[in-house]
Amino acid sequence: MPVNALYRDDFYLSTCEAVVTAVHEDGGIELDQTCFYATSGGQPGDTGEFERADGSKIALGQTKHGPSKDVIIHVPLEGAPRPVVGETLVLHVDWPRRYRLMRMHTACHLLSVVCSYPITGAAVGEEESRVDFDMIETIDKDEVTAKLMELVEQNHPVTLQWITDEELTANPDIVKSKNVRPPMGLGRVSLVCIGENSSIDSQPCGGTHVSETQEVGRIHIAKIEKKGKENRRFRIRFGTPGDEA
User: Fold this and answer.
1) 93, 123, 147: which is the final residue of a domain?
2) Considering its fold, how many domains does the chain have in total?
3) Name one GO biological process term (predicted).
4) CA angle 111, 101, 114 (to 5 degrees)
């Protein structure tokens, strides 16, 4: 049975109950449902802990996909106890970490609005994220920062819409990334929409995001690097230059 990935419909869900459906030889745990995000699309998977009926904890160091997107494997830290199949656990996501990643991932979407060039790569991090663009133009990082903060402070709503795999296939131009395809194969694809009626942006993405741009907080472009003749890497950090928070 495919796992019920609860985070796909509720980015703010940080705890839930779940039943163990499999325990792998290497300790990886599969559940009937989960609120833990699995590594995908440049966003790291969630960490946190599972609480057992006796109150003891199983610390989680990684969440990843299995052979397909409908399989999610929770990897305990070395030495952590193993649950048994059929056991009910209470899942607790490391919320401060997840929320930083949600803010960062949303910031990456805002950057793709300010810099409307094809995306060649991206990675979301707790302290710094990067987005690579197919561009040769020279652009001022302070100017980009100002435009980013304008979008943040305008507090646009960030919502989720669903389209079918077939609808995405029929409209390939809505994908900004040149070499990373949105998660398909589950029958539906999520569109992250910024602004009323997607007035700011609409982009297929399986990551987690905040519900309004103001939640992103203060961000800035720390550096713009030349990575080849037609590639520029933008590094986003929280806070103001010299005062990351």
Assistant:
1) 93
2) 2
3) alanyl-tRNA aminoacylation
4) 5
The fraction of the chain above a pLDDT of 70, given in percent, is: 89
Structural domain of residue 81, as residue ranges? 4-93
**Of 143, 140, 159, 120, residue with least CA distance to 42:** 120
Q: Is residue 166 over pLDDT 90?
A: no
- Residue 190 belongs to domain with CATH number: 3.30.980.10
pLDDT higher than threshold 80 for residue 243: no
Could you tell me how far CA 194 lies from the centroid of its own chain? 15
CB count within 10 Å of CB 65 equals 17
User: Bridge partners of 234?
Assistant: 131, 224
Give the residue among 131, 110, 135, 138 at the shortest CA–CA distance from 222: 131
pTM recorded for the entire structure: 0.90
The answer for 22, left when phi > 0, alpha when psi is -120 to 50, beta otherwise, is beta
Residue 245 resides in a domain: no
Q: Same structural domain for residues 80 and 102? A: no
Q: Report the DSSP beta bridge partners of residue 193.
A: 159, 202
